[in-house]
């Protein structure tokens, strides 16, 4: 059975995208099965990821969770265990998974007298994995009194565990903002409606949003796409954005369609 450090290196070399973590799931299950503990039971509510149930009595459960997916980012480092494909564990999910795996080993080895669920969650990067797990209602089978998760960060000395009262991490939501115009040859701009110019104006307006230090709010644009050829004014533009805030409220009912409305 491999160590958590060995697991981390192998995961980092073989990252898989959200809901495609088939080999990662298989690899984790193979190693966990070597524990040969009668207290362990595996649940697979989705095709990837799983829950390892450690039950020693009829009491309540603690839930510990780690994410297992990677990003479509090409790794450009000289790390000896760098990614072998065009994906990357750029957000530390290989570390999170290895920590949870090591904790599971410790719990079984020392026969801890506490019921625990070890959730190896898929698709955190898409923001959909947790919801899909909840939608299966598998967690409703257990009397869960507390849930725990963590995230690695390089702002503190090695070995430090940092937390705080209240919210530690902001809520996150991703959105696409689209602009529709009328294309025309660049020699006759008066005949068209430039969607790219509308997008530029929108981004300028976003930059003027006043910042309230008492209500943290971050709006970021990571990707913009517009235009098809060099001499045609674009009739379509799209900005791929993300919002981080301590309060995101979802409402539905805009022109009969399902939309996201954010209120801070």
Number of strands: 10
Helices and strands, in N-to-C order? HHEEEHEHEEEHEEE
Shape: elongated
Q: Please give the count of helices.
A: 5
Return Rg in Å: 23 Å
State the oligomer. Answer: single chain
Largest sheet: 5 strands, mixed
Structural class of the helices, strands and pairings?
alpha+beta
What order do the strands of the largest sheet run in, or round the barrel if closed? Answer: 1-2-4-3-5
Global mean pLDDT: 90
Molecular structure report:
The structure is a single chain. The chain is about 25% helix and about 25% strand. With about 260 residues, it is α+β, with helices and mostly antiparallel strands. The chain folds into 2 domains: about 140 residues, Aminopeptidase; about 80 residues, Alpha-Beta Plaits (2-Layer Sandwich), CATH 3.30.70.
Any chance you could write out the topology, listing elements then pairs?
Layout: H1 4-13, H2 22-33, E1 40-43, E2 50-54, E3 61-67, H3 93-110, E4 115-121, H4 129-135, E5 144-148, E6 171-180, E7 184-185, H5 195-207, E8 217-226, E9 232-233, E10 236-245
Helix pairs in contact: 1-3
Keywords, separated by commas or semicolons:
Alpha-Beta Plaits; Aminopeptidase; 2 domains; elongated; three-stranded antiparallel sheet; 5 helices; single chain; alpha+beta; five-stranded mixed sheet; 10 strands; 264 residues
